[in-house]
Amino acid sequence: MSGILEVQELRVQFKVGGSLLAKPRTLHAINGVSLSVARGEVLSIVGESGCGKSTLARTMLGIETPTYGRVLLEGRPIGDYRRADLAAKIQPIFQDPYSSLNPRKTVHDLIAMPLLVRGGMARREISRLVTDTMELVGLPRRMMHSYPSAMSGGQRQRVAIARAIVTRPEVIICDEPTSALDVSVQAQILNLLDDLRRQLNLTYIFISHDLSVVNHISDRVAVIYLGRIVEIGPVEDVLHNPRHPYTRRLRASTLEPERGVRLPKPVFQGGFPDPTNPPAGCHYHPRCSEAMPVCQTAAPGALRVGHSTVACHMFTGLADDDEDLNPESAQIAAGQET
Ligand code: SF4
């Protein structure tokens, strides 16, 4: 599989705070991320709130501008695309279908919007594509002139999905697409996304904090902590045999309760650190029960362990081939996989 989307040494920083008396501080939202997504693949990005996963998604969409590094779509920097051409190839589906749809537009007009922005199509052709796409996502034709306020949450998310695929894009960025929905509707939407991926050969970047959803839909998973990828690999390795201490804690803190077994105790030590003043060395060291002296001063490089890539000093000397995949830049916590 060839890489359709490449993220190369990406850094995204924001200035925050600042007043007459105080200088603004720099928030390191993304701190050296590299990854490659193959055509037709589902790569999930997981981590706690504030870890940078939504900023990463917005940068892949061209909404945020990198401070350093770049994003390539089909080998071409996304900044080189015309805005409308980029939107035809990469589309988002956001968490909240209630706020992402204009309440004054009909279903037809909402779904037709990306086609109108791209231009060059007759009204009849647009209406035919809208009708075909409504059928693909399971929306009855009679809803074409309905408004979002008359629809259920699941129907609204189907409209949002129809709008995202109506230009037949290559890549969809799904940012928590089921978290605002009832559990029963979540499964329907996940199954729909899965079906559409096969039918249209879509590539998904799937942002979520829900590991059961991630387990259901992903081929690979990237775990992100304070703007760095700490572990990336096949879903069965990362979620079922996690190596990095943070992935193990994340996994343990979101275990599903079993019949007759009490919920696990929260296992994270300390709070989430301040991203304007991240800890030196391994960002995770103040919360890590495995931390060693070296962890406080040196950021771990990315090491191949089994089928995964892990950024943790525990694996130095134990990694496959004893090879540091990224020896020149200890800040870059994870590299590309084959
Ligand atoms: Fe823990 Fe050190 Fe590994 Fe960071 S590098 S996760 S502090 S053991």
Overview of the molecule:
The protein is an alpha/beta fold and 338 residues long. The chain has a domain at 245-255 and 279-338. The chain has 10 helices and 12 strands. It has helices at residues 53-60, 83-89, 97-100, 107-118, 123-136, 153-165, 183-200, 211-217, 235-240, 245-253; strands spanning 3-17, 24-38, 42-46, 68-73, 76-77, 90-93, 171-175, 203-207, 220-225, 228-234, 303-305, 308-310. The strands form 2 sheets. It has an 8-stranded mixed β-sheet with strand order 6-7-8-3-9-10-12-11, with helices on both faces. Helix 2 packs across helix 4. It starts with a strand and ends in a 28-residue tail after the last strand. The site of iron/sulfur cluster has 13 residues, from loops. Residues 245, 282, 284-285, 288, 290-292, 295, 300, 312-314 line the site of iron/sulfur cluster.
Keyword list:
single chain, 338 residues, alpha/beta, 8-stranded mixed β-sheet, 4-stranded antiparallel β-sheet, 12 strands, globular, disordered C terminus, binds iron/sulfur cluster
Q: What kind of sheet is the major sheet?
A: 8 strands, mixed
The number of strands is 12
Which overall shape is indicated by the principal axes computed on the Cα atoms? globular
CA-atom Rg in angstroms: 21 Å
Summary of the model, kept short:
The protein is α/β, with parallel strands linked by helices and 338 residues long.
Helix and strand topology:
Blueprint: E1 3-17, E2 24-38, E3 42-46, H1 53-60, E4 68-73, E5 76-77, H2 83-89, E6 90-93, H3 97-100, H4 107-118, H5 123-136, H6 153-165, E7 171-175, H7 183-200, E8 203-207, H8 211-217, E9 220-225, E10 228-234, H9 235-240, H10 245-253, E11 303-305, E12 308-310
Parallel strand pairs: 3-8, 3-9, 6-7, 7-8
Antiparallel strand pairs: 1-2, 1-4, 4-5, 9-10, 10-12, 11-12
